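Blinded run. Sample ID left blank on purpose so nobody reads anything into the name before looking at the predicted structure. Input follows.
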Amino acid sequence: MKYKVIIDPLAKEDLREIFFYVSLNDSLEIANKLLDKIEETSYKLEKFPYRGHIPEELRTTGIKRYLEIHYKPYRIIYEIKKDKIYIHSVLDGRRNVQEILSIRILK
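Blinded prediction complete.
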C-alpha cells in the first residue's frame, strides 16, 4: 500500500522559516538543498510510514498518534490516518520542541 503525504499549513510555514533562516545565514543554494532533503525524507514515508517513533516530548503525555523522523537536526512530526500521512511540523531539534509541541498538539 502506498500512502499519500500531505504537508499541512503549519509545517509549510516551518519549511518557509527554515528556508529563510538558512538563506540569510548561509546561502540560497544551501537553503534550497536543505529543503529538498527534508522533503525527500518526508516523502519516503509514502512507502515506510511506520518507520518513525513517538516523540519523547509526547511519550509522557500518553499521546501516541504522532510519530517523528529526522533529517538532522530537523524533526519531522507526522500522523497517519488511513492511507494518508499528515506532516504537522518540521522543527529544529535545537529549539524548545516541548514548548512548540505543547502549543500545537496539546492545545
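Unblinding after everyone has recorded impressions. The helical segments are 9-25, 28-43, 56-59, 97-104.
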